[in-house]
Design goal:
By secondary structure, this protein is of the alpha+beta class. The chain folds into 2 domains: about 110 residues; about 100 residues, Beta Barrel (Thrombin, subunit H), CATH 2.40.10. About 60% of the residues lie in helices and about 15% in strands. Strands 1-2-5-4-3-6 form a 6-stranded antiparallel β-barrel. A hairpin with an 8-residue loop joins strand 3 and strand 4. The termini are far apart.
């Protein structure tokens, strides 16, 4: 459009100059100069118009790109708007459901308040009935504190007794070692019978327990120096804290014997938790009147008496 206007102006100027030249020939040189200037300006204007045209094309291209990007963003925004509308519809449905649940819970709460009000009526009576129990609880707590205090005192006494017992056990162990040493010294040159003598020790293993619980079978017999009627003091080697027990040999065979539990009064007695395959240490004991019996046993085995 601008180019058309400039072209029209150029033509009108040329026509005007032609008319002026015809009417005034004396001034042709001046007109030619002016005409040349007009043509130069026309060339400049055409060049400027061409530059403006290129710039306009570039601006239109950039505007087209921006329009395309804007259209894409607009479409994306519309899609997001549709998603948001759908989510809002779902939220509205959930909101209605939640409102309904809230109303139901409010009704339930009102009902519970009424029931609580009814239940609170006998609370005073219950508190009156429970007061003796609370007093009893306080009394029991005081009794427990007193018992705990007494228990602490008794524990201190028990610790003191345990210390004394440890000292006595140490003394007993030293005495036993001295006894064994003195016994070995005194009997070094004495011929012993083939059977176990008094204070002799023998480690055996429990093979079976009799159903009555009054005795056990052990893995040692006649060849180990055991004889019928011998009495022993037994100790559990796997549990040194267990109480010792007394026992008497009943049935003695070559490689096993029956060991019957006895108490001081002669009644049946079974050590606690004595198990099969448990090791026990037997120390021969008994009355001194059995020394005569030992002499007879020694005489009967004089042909096979080894020397220490």
């Amino acid at each position: 459009m601008i180019l058309f206007i400039f072209r029209s102006l150029a033509w009108l100027s040329s026509i005007g100059l032609g008319i002026f030249f015809i009417l005034n020939p004396s001034s042709s040189n001046a007109i030619l100069v002016e005409l040349q200037k007009a043509e130069d300006e026309l060339v400049n204007l055409q060049s400027q118009m061409e530059s403006d045209k290129n710039k306009t094309a570039n601006d239109e291209l950039e505007l087209s790109k921006q329009s395309t990007a804007f259209r894409e963003r607009s479409d994306l925004a519309k899609a997001e708007e549709l998603e948001i509308d759908e989510e809002l519809e779902g939220v509205s449905a959930k909101s209605e459901e939640l409102d309904k649940q809230v109303a139901e819970k409010k009704e339930e709460l009102e009902s519970l308040k009424q029931e609580l009000a009814k239940a609170g009526i006998p609370l005073g009576e219950i508190e009156l009935q429970g007061k003796p129990l609370f007093d009893r609880e306080i009394s029991l707590k005081e009794s427990i504190k007193k018992l705990e205090s007494d228990l602490a005192v008794q524990k201190e006494k028990a610790d003191a007794i345990a210390s004394e017992l440890a000292v006595l056990e140490t003394k007993r162990k030293i005495s036993e070692e001295n006894f064994d040493s003195e016994k070995e010294r005194l009997t070094a040159d004495v011929k012993k019978p083939y059977h176990l003598h008094f204070a002799d020790k023998k480690e055996v293993v429990v093979r079976n327990k009799v159903p009555s619980g009054k005795g056990v079978f052990i893995d040692a017999g006649y060849r180990d120096g055991f004889r019928n009627g011998m009495e022993f003091l037994g100790e559990k080697l796997d549990d040194r804290s267990a109480l010792p027990f007394r026992a008497e040999l009943g049935l003695v065979q070559d490689s096993y014997s029956y060991l019957k539990f006895v108490s001081v009064e002669g009644s049946g007695f079974s050590p606690d938790s004595l198990r099969e395959d448990e090791r026990i240490l037997l120390t021969r004991s008994g009355k001194l009147s059995l020394l005569k019996k030992d002499k007879e046993l020694a005489d009967s085995n004089s042909t096979t008496v080894p020397e220490n």
